[in-house]
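Quick note —
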Amino acid sequence: MTRVEAAAEAHVRPRFGETLARMSAAQKPGRGAPPYSRWINRRMGRVIAAAAYTVGATPNQVTAASAALTTGALVVIALVEPVWWLGFVVAGLLVLGYAFDAADGQLARLRGGGSRAGEWLDHMVDVTKTCALHAVVLISFFRFGGIPGEPFLLIPLGYLTVSIVLFFGIMLVDQLRRQAAAQGAAPAAPSGGSGLLQTLVALPADYGILCIAFFLFGVTPAFLVAYTLLFIGHTVVLLGALARWWRQLRALDAEASRA
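Predicted structure written out below.
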């Protein structure tokens, strides 16, 4: 974009309220998205995206802000011994980081569409924070204790594994569906399912719910209970998703063979 074009865009850019109203009327469907992400985080991201558009920020700058907020939370978890108030700091940073994560894509669509490089950056930040969050929880448990015994150190490791497998599975299944659609085997379909039931079933795997659980981080026994329950629920969601994806991909293979 040239300086003249940038100046023209700034001159005609609508005010915050106008931008927010326009975004609210043109949102992508939320069917099947996890509950916090669908009903809370996207709305927070919408406000941030409208504000970012008003001041002329780019989607990549919003992604960088999301990464900075989440990194702040990760550093605090790893380095600061849990006390009662610490969970409010950690959860606040994680919640804000997640809201900015929802804003970058909305801002890109508002500006007329994103770029492949921007989408790559967004996904790389997502997978990095997913790995690092459970890693720093393990570091905190190991450094500061508060857990019943050493076997509980395996919970963050298991949670990290399940989270990464689910993340990779979503990305890969979506790519395979797009490939099948390009070959004419079947229309592309979203990987997250649809409907209210799917939304509620996905609750244990909602990153936003995990962020909220960190409000308990300053009280290690309470946090460990919440964290373990989310880990178990996340595992159940993964197992169900794996079975569903396998059936769907087998159906695509059968459709391709008939074609």
